[in-house]
Amino acid sequence: MTLKVNEIFYSIQGESLYSGLPCVFVRLSGCNLRCSYCDTRYAYEEGTETELNEIIKQVADYECPLVEITGGEPLLQKDTPFLIYKLLEKGYEVMLETNGSLDIGIIDGRCMKILDVKCPSSGESGKNDLKNLEKLGAKDQVKFVIVNREDYEFAKEITKSRCVGIAEKQILYSPVSGEINPARLAEWILKDRLRVRLHLQLHKVIWPHVERGV
Predict the structure, then answer these.
(1) What is the CATH number of the domain that holds 176?
(2) How confident is the prediction along the chain (214 residues), in pLDDT tens digits per residue?
(3) Which residues share a beta bridge with 22?
(4) Burial level of 119, CB count in 10 A (0-12/13-18/19+)?
(5) Which run of H or of E encompasses 188?
(6) How far apart are CA 189 and CA 185, in angstroms?
(7) Is the whole model's pTM more than 0.85, yes or no?
């Protein structure tokens, strides 16, 4: 059993409630979306077919209990759920970052899912499968990547209409680095009394000029 892997690396978790923690990242190749602000275009095609046991071995080499499966879009590969299952069975805490266009119901419930709901500026908001919001568990998270006011209003509407029952600390509003001043987004959130979390990409604060392996 193999998966097409773009890179496996050890870094600081930067885009979840676990921001700041050391984490092993398994970036799988391929994506079905082409978001305007994508910062991992190199993962669209680049990658190496890698045996599942070899992936697990490389993860183990870092001696870190936290693992994130990301992409690209990990759920495009049919064996991703099995990789997640095997890592969970070995005692890892596993996170999955997904673009929200594919069914997350196939993923082991023990896995923490970060569901990215695409806003209009991405150019891919029509691909959202909002039924996924009903499949989130108590520790899962919803992320809105925001470029402008239109994105914010879109995120606010989805938050109010479709995120009922999701804990406020688990709804993340993330400004696109270099596209919108985080202070402006903070002002909108405060003015509207939204109970959401303003979330910055920590790895871009730490390594602003590094594109891969962080």
Answers:
(1) 3.20.20.70
(2) 899 999 999 999 988 899 999 999 999 999 999 999 998 999 999 999 999 999 999 999 999 999 999 999 999 999 999 999 999 999 999 999 999 999 999 999 999 999 999 999 999 999 999 999 999 999 999 999 999 999 999 999 999 999 988 888 899 999 998 899 999 999 999 999 999 999 998 877 777 776 776 6
(3) 12
(4) buried
(5) helix 182-191
(6) 6
(7) yes
On whether the CB atoms of residues 66 and 24 are closer than 8 A, the answer is yes
Please indicate, yes or no, if residue 185 is contained in any of the structural domains: yes
Q: What is the largest CA-CA distance in the chain?
A: 51
Residue 111 lies in a domain: yes
Note whether 144 and 99 are within 8 A (CB). no
Taking alpha carbons only, the member of 181, 160, 45, 48 closest to residue 26 is: 48
The answer to whether residue 213 is domain-embedded is: no
3-class secondary structure, 5: strand
> Structure tokens of 30?
């391929």
Closest-CA residue to 118 (of 96, 147, 138, 139): 147
What residues make up the domain containing 173? 2-206
In the chain, the number of structural domains is: 1
Kindly state whether residue 211 falls inside one of the protein's structural domains.
Answer: no
Tell me the Cα Rg of the chain: 17
Length of the chain: 214
